[in-house]
Write a structure and sequence with these properties.
Helix content: 40-55%
Number of strands: 7
Structural class: alpha/beta
Largest sheet: 7 strands, mixed
Distance between the termini: 49 Å
Shape: elongated
Low-confidence stretches: none
Strand content: 15-25%
Length: 222
């Protein structure tokens, strides 16, 4: 078996892995090259994994990587749309796709799972709003920075959690922890808003809205 190392896995995937508890079984939805389940198995975070993707080509790539690391008996490849062919597992990871697609996958699940690790490339606030309104509870969050881009990772379970507008925008756990990458992300967004205001030619109402957002971010990261 190939030696355990982190060289094959990105910082984003490492940060996703850091939120996974020790489990017997998990499913990685949108597995791509299969690097995440390989890492989780090799580091004894999971005993068995399902590597799932909607396309054949990524699964072929994952198959070669799984073989390379000698994990054919520990990782099963599944061609499926979302969670359609995923039976009961301890943890589901859905990452590397848009917030709306993650919502669709969650809506179309046939069963409930214990824990979900969700990483949306966009529309994270819309995802949080859906989670809050549909019986999910956010229990951990993390901001990852990889290849000059910020990624938000959300760990959820089933439960009731009514989020306010700030918690939907910034994340309830992020607002408590205010990690280095959380501050960096919102400083970058703040600069973007400030640049817009400098050359703004829109209406007074739109300008007031922008200034209100700027003040909110400044307060959050202060």
């Amino acid at each position: 078996m190939a030696k355990t190392n982190k060289t094959f896995i990105t910082k984003r995937l490492l940060d996703i892995a850091s939120l996974v508890d020790r489990v017997e079984t998990l499913a990685d939805i949108g597995t791509d090259h299969g690097y995440l389940p390989i890492y989780l198995i090799k580091n004894n975070i999971a005993s068995f994994a399902l590597a799932c993707d909607v396309a054949i080509m990524p699964l072929e790539s994952a198959k070669q990587n799984i073989k390379k690391y000698g994990l054919e008996d520990k990782i099963k490849l599944i061609l499926c749309d979302g969670l359609s062919n995923v039976n009961k597992v301890d943890c589901v990871i859905i990452s590397g796709m848009g917030g709306h697609l993650i919502i669709d996958i969650l809506k179309n699940r046939n069963i409930d799972y214990n824990t979900y690790i969700l990483q949306a490339n966009n529309n994270v606030d819309i995802l949080r709003r859906y989670l809050s309104a549909n019986g999910f509870k956010i229990i951990d969050e993390k901001i990852s920075y990889d290849h000059k881009k910020f990624y938000e990772i959300i760990k959820v379970t089933h439960g009731q959690q009514a989020l306010n507008e700030q918690e939907i925008t910034y994340g309830p756990i992020n607002l408590i922890n205010k990690s280095t990458f959380f501050i960096a992300k919102w400083k970058e967004i703040l600069q973007r808003y400030q640049n817009i205001v400098t050359d703004f030619t829109g209406s007074k109402e739109e300008l007031e809205k922008l200034n209100k957002k700027i003040s909110e971010i400044e307060l959050i990261i202060s």
